[in-house]
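lol ok so funny story. i was supposed to be doing the assay writeup but got distracted and ended up predicting the structure for this chain instead. priorities right. anyway since i did it might as well share w the group, maybe its usefull for someone
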Amino acid sequence: MINAKQFKIHVIIPTLQGMAVAFAGAASPAAANLLLGTCFHESLGGTYLVQAGGGPARGLYQMEPATELDIWKNYLRLQKQLRLDYMLNMVGHRLEEKRPLLLLDLEYQTAMARLKYYRHNFTWPENPKDVEALGQIWKRVYNTRHGAGTVDQFVNDFPMEALEWH
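and the output, tada:
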């Protein structure tokens, strides 16, 4: 399991800050906490890098390749050039290496998880530390009504020691 504070400070926050130029509002304390909770629920903080039972989900956020493709094909491709260029610049040299980015690249995994949320409309909680409200967003957008996860599970898996923005 990864250290939640270090992951948030050294991966999540810099990734979100980098995205903020192309994706207004991408970086916020609530977004950082939502991604942290997503990571710690979906992969138990990096305990599982491939889906248990042989499923297709990969990486710390347990994103399926079909979801990754959908974000590229049905969202990024249709966005302003600035947004597409940002993501293409992030992955350009990595694609040439034919690396499985959903498994090996923490910045890419974090950016794709943020985009999964970014393309949906929802209201952020007033308090970015409201883990239950963040869990409700996770359930609605990331796990969906078809998923087996619950808000209570999200809350229980959340690394409370890492709630602060810095």
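The chain has one domain: 4-162. The chain is about 55% helix and 0% strand.
back to the writeup now i swear
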